[in-house]
Amino acid sequence: MILITGGAGYIGAHVALEWLGQGEEVLILDNLCNSQRAAIERISTLAGKRPEFIQGDVRNRRLLDTLLHDYPIDAVVHCAGLKAVGESVREPLRYFDTNVGGSLTLCQAMAQAGVFHLVFSSSATVYGDCATLPINEACATGQPTNPYGMSKLMSENIMKSVASSDPRWSIGLLRYFNPIGAHPSGLLGEAPTSTPNNLLPYLLEVASGQRPHLSVFGNDYPTLDGTGVRDYLHVVDLALGHVCALDTLRGRRGVSIWNLGTGRGYSVLEVVSAFEQVTGIKIPLSIEARRPGDIARCWANPQKAIEELGWQASRSLQSMLADAWRWQSNQLGQVDVRQAN
Ligand code: NAD
Ligand code: UD1
């Protein structure tokens, strides 16, 4: 059985669904601070099988000890955490407590229970402003400019130290690039509870009339059209990466680091234009100043994951955008996707 912390959230729910589809038993631990119980129902509907679900906190050591004792858990995927960069600047202690404290407590409980396979949701943010592109895993980690990024790097460092202290550990640090999209059914996707910070959720709210325009943060970057370039990755591809990572970890020891990205970057204006083509909806834009802390360009070299995991992202930008819009439209009860994939 696989324990997925944060498994009611955007990425964890897709990971849970993939494993259930492969006949694995899944236990989700989530305190629902940024998700809803309905996600568990949706996972069950799509998988035709119900995951075990416990509402609780990953920092609760006693609860973790009980779960690791009561269920036949042999691996953990640690997705639980807080992820809003701006909020992390305003509330650093909450971010360190949840993201670093959660990782620490989880590793302690796992060691005590003798469970040594761990997959961690890390982020390309740990590279900072990497001088060479595409970014491969050998690039030095940078200086994160915000507590969120620091908390990911600190968690990675804790896990590296833990693995060097005991050869039984097998830990995969998955550095996600920019996950977007939704399950193609339109039943599972990202559901921001407050004003979104990331490009896609914000764009979807503009498209559905909830916000007047999309702010483009800077058009004077040294990129093809002056706007920021990122490696957008379909959340279903990302979820499949977790399955491949754990399969690989079962045959090795120590810490393994894998970039999960497509290897291709798109600018903000390219994303907007592709979205307009896929949905037929015009997105009003407002060109604004650069967002503090943003970098110009960031995309992965996914070669290591391709070779070692046998994993490669295959879904196009168009299918990411069509799936995201289907999910958004379903949320609003107005299915309105012109073109499927
Ligand atoms: P999300 O907010 O949708 O999911 C996180 C889940 O963790 C939520 O369901 C939340 O309720 C739960 N959670 C938070 N604190 C908890 C706690 N103390 N105990 C138990 N559950 C708790 O976010 P997501 O996009 O699914 O991200 C999952 C992980 O991937 C996070 O660690 C995030 O930092 C990381 N990540 C996300 C992205 C991205 O763009 N979405 C990029 C890189 C890394
Ligand atoms: C951001 C976080 C990063 C985190 C990642 C996933 C910052 C500085 N970085 O990355 O730490 O791991 O999300 O959660 O917040 N953009 C707009 N208008 C918008 C929103 C975004 O033009 O309303 C632009 C940005 O300037 C950027 C691109 O779109 O060029 C992507 O932005 P975003 O989706 O926020 O992701 P990242 O900045 O890559």
UniProtKB/TrEMBL annotation:
CDD domains: UDP_G4E_1_SDR_e. It is an enzyme of class 5 (isomerase). Coiled coil: none annotated. Pfam families: Epimerase (PF01370). GO terms for cellular component: cytosol. Residues 2-150 form the Ketoreductase domain. Keywords: Carbohydrate metabolism, Galactose metabolism, Isomerase, NAD. InterPro entries: Epimerase_deHydtase, KR_dom, NAD(P)-bd_dom_sf, UDP_G4E. Its cofactor is NAD(+). Pathway: Carbohydrate metabolism; galactose metabolism. Its EC number is 5.1.3.2. It comes from the Bacteria. The keyword Glycosyltransferase does not apply. GO terms for molecular function: UDP-glucose 4-epimerase activity. It catalyses: UDP-alpha-D-glucose = UDP-alpha-D-galactose. GO terms for biological process: galactose metabolic process. Belongs to the NAD(P)-dependent epimerase/dehydratase family. Homodimer. This is UDP-glucose 4-epimerase. It comes from Pseudomonas khorasanensis. The lineage of its organism: Bacteria, Pseudomonadati, Pseudomonadota, Gammaproteobacteria, Pseudomonadales.
